[in-house]
Every structure is written in structure tokens, then in C-alpha cells.
Amino acid sequence: MNFARHVIVALAGVVIFTHVWPAQAETVVKLPAAAVDPAVKAKRATAVLAGGCFWGVEGVFSNVKGVVSVESGYHGGSAATAKYELTHDGKSGHAEAVRIVYDPTQVSYGTLLRVLFSVVADPTLKNRQGPDTGTQYRAAIVPMDATQRQVATAYLSQIGKGKFFAKPIVVPVETYKTFYRAEAGHQDFMKRNPSNGYIVRWDAPKLAAFKRLYPNLVRATPAP
Fold first, then answer.
1. Which CATH superfamily, name and number, covers 5-217?
2. 34, 40, 47, 53: which one is catalytic?
3. pLDDT tens-digit readout, 184-195
4. How far apart are CA 56 and CA 26, in angstroms?
């Protein structure tokens, strides 16, 4: 990526790396509902998903009806490297990810994946999303049980065969390790910093696209 310049700002004791980017469009695709998406009777379930910078991923899913809470964090590496400043060399194994607690009677796991790949993450990009490059920005699905893995595998196959994207789907289905909650300054970042340059350029359009494509899935107020 050709970044015009790099800016480092401090937020709540956390070093945040931001950039100024050339304007470019991102892919928004209204995908079909998951063909394989078994009903789950439990009132609570957890999903761990990665889709690039966690600010926007959290910001979108906080607005999905049936979502109870969303946390930004790290998945794939060790506790020792589960820190923002230690993930930026791409060697930690971590992906910036979110942990979503949701009500399966209101929103299915398949629907969460539909939202992820419709407006949040381009599933044809390997180790990058938007302006961000490196393994820490990979899109990934991290099933928490066999049913979620079944839905994830089937949905990736479904959207791949449907030719909704010009390039092949490269999103991995990863084995769950440990989700490490990110620093406090990263939680609810999009909601608390709507005028942030990165949010305005890259994440606000994702939320707007979600509301435009799936108005029936929008919460009245964002989840915590």
C-alpha cells in the first residue's frame, strides 16, 4: 500500500497507529442467506470473527439485531503477544478479531457470516483488508462448535460457487484457541470516535452499507 503518511496518536494510554490513505472503493455485495444454517434453541451463543481492523467489525456487528454484545480483541497467538503494539509486525499469529455474544433465536450464525462478507470483509483478500496489510488483518472464521464449523464451511462454498466475487474465496476456517480482549481504548472505538479519519473513510461506509442492504437486521440502538 502507498500510504501518504503515518500518524501516531495516543488514546487512553494506548498507542494507536493511523494513516492518511488515497481514496479507493471497497467491495459491497448483497449475499444470499446461508443455505446451511441449523436452528439453535439456546438464548445465547458466541461467535469469533475476524475481518480486518476490529474497529469497523465491532462497529457493524454492534448494530445487528439479536447481537447482545461485541468485544474487540486478538485471536490466534499467545497471551504474551496479545497487545496492540505487538501485533503489527504480522508475526504474533493474532488476527484483530471480535467476540460476539448473540441470541440465536433472533439472528443466526449464518446471518452473521452473511453480514461479515457482504459489507465488512472482502473474502477474496489474503492477509489484508482495506488499507491494512499483514496477517493481523486477515479475515477469518473461528467456529466455537461443530455446528458453527458446518455452517462456515458450507457458506464459504456457497458464496464461492455463486460467483459473487471476481476472485476465489480465501478465508480460512481456524481452530479456536483463546480470545484476548483488546485494550480499553479499542472497545466501542467507532461509536466513541465517529470523526476519526480512519472511521470516516473506511468504517462508517460499512455501517451505512449494512443499514442500506439489510434494514430488517438493524438494531434500534447499538449493542454494548
1. Peptide methionine sulphoxide reductase MsrA (3.30.1060.10)
2. 53
3. 999 999 999 999
4. 13
